[in-house]
Write a structure and sequence with these properties.
384 residues; alpha/beta; Rossmann fold; 5-stranded parallel sheet; 16 helices; globular
């Protein structure tokens, strides 16, 4: 695999590092932390030993007193290990604990308090365009996504299909997160039609022929497995009647394209539009996660139908972003942004589109997609 420098930075001290499988958590840790006590809980024998005897961790740590960093890879596999980690941290022998996870569900179910705030929470995301630089190809990203394990594969399309299957098999089924894996697979397909759209749980339940509560539980499973997330409505000092339902996104455009069924009635531009919006969403979300600013991602939609795809709001950031999967932008495309700017003149606004030129249209900056994505760096403010 080609080495790609990631934007994630070591926060110092002990920390959790959450992120979907294949996003590069272990690779980043092995690159940044040498001479560690490493416990790989994906290894079946290691997993069996620590499930049977979590206190074995103390023995492994004390056997290597010179190694001050302890890594527990995929700690959700054995939640009881956190009790041992907590004890070792209380003893304060100057050790750092780094705990990775691709799911927080078991930790939540076990009532674990994530070490009572003694460890920071970090997250790893798919590649950002500014991490890849000249290796980035927009059309490939829209079709295959930017998950590192897929991006680096000899056959990315095959790797992507296997990746989705891995989650169904190793996470959902093996962890007994749902009773009927087949029903969950059908739910994934139905949810693909909600990607980059307002989430209506009742409609999804009707499509899957299951109860609304079942679908609500399935959505929570997706979020706990870090496969998807909801974006709430921006309603600060709202001056108009706004919708209440969040929008939903899969964490990566490739995963969305992999689970989305296609047929003669599916317009290519419709799929590409949802994929492009998801690609921008995952970059804004990564910027928020890697940057030391308490910013949040929202969208804005009035009950009359005016919608702005994204609003990033924080102490130093207030920007509205509209995404257009088109080569040209017209004045009519700016109506929702203009309405938003009337209510929030303090915000910056821009349109991200598939054209090649940077334009100023009716006072709104229109930026080519590649240029916009390349400009998103956690070390730099998010601005137009």
């Amino acid at each position: 695999m080609t080495s790609v420098a990631r934007f994630l930075e070591d926060p110092g001290g002990s920390f959790f590092l959450f992120g979907p499988r294949g996003t590069g958590k272990s690779t980043w840790l092995r690159h940044n932390f040498r001479d560690t006590v490493w416990v790989d809980l994906l290894d079946r024998e290691t997993h069996r030993l620590y499930v049977a005897k979590p206190e074995r961790l103390r023995q492994a740590v004390e056997a290597r007193p010179a190694r001050r960093i302890v890594v527990l890879d995929e700690v959700q596999k054995v939640p009881d290990l956190l009790d041992v980690v907590h004890q070792l941290m209380e003893e304060n022998h100057g050790r750092r604990f780094v705990l990775t996870g691709s799911s927080a569900r078991k930790l939540k179910r076990a009532g674990v308090d994530l070490l009572a705030g003694r460890a920071a929470n970090l997250s790893m995301h798919p590649f950002m365009v500014s991490e890849l630089g000249s290796d980035f190809v927009l059309d490939d990203a829209l079709r295959l996504g930017l998950v590192p394990v897929v991006w680096a594969a000899a056959n990315p399309a095959k790797a992507l299909s296997a990746y989705v299957g891995l989650y169904l098999e190793q996470e959902v089924k093996a962890e007994a997160l749902v009773r009927d894996v087949g029903a969950f697979a059908r739910f994934l397909e139905a949810m693909s039609f909600s990607h980059a759209a307002v989430l209506n749980v009742t409609n999804v339940a009707r499509e899957c022929q299951v109860s609304r509560n079942t679908v609500q539980g399935y959505v929570e499973v997706l979020e706990d497995l870090l496969l998807g997330y909801r974006v709430p409505v921006f309603a600060r000092r709202a001056q108009r009647h706004l919708v209440q339902h969040p929008k939903f996104y899969f964490f990566d455009t490739g995963v969305f394209r992999s689970v989305r069924p296609t047929g003669p009635l599916d317009a290519p531009e419709e799929l590409a539009g949802a994929a492009l919006e998801g690609l921008v969403a995952q970059h804004l979300r990564s910027w928020i996660a890697y940057r030391d600013e308490d910013a949040h991602l929202y969208y804005w939609r009035t009950k009359s139908g005016s919608e702005v795809d994204f609003v990033v709001y924080g102490p130093e950031t207030f920007i509205a972003v509209e995404v257009k999967n088109s080569r040209n932008v017209y004045s009519r495309d700016l109506r929702a942004l203009r309405s938003f700017m009337q209510d929030y003149p303090q915000a910056q606004a821009c349109v991200v589109y598939r054209g090649r030129e940077r334009l100023l249209l009716d006072g709104v900056l229109c930026v080519p997609c590649e240029e916009f994505l390349l400009s998103i760096r956690p070390s730099c403010p998010l601005s137009t």
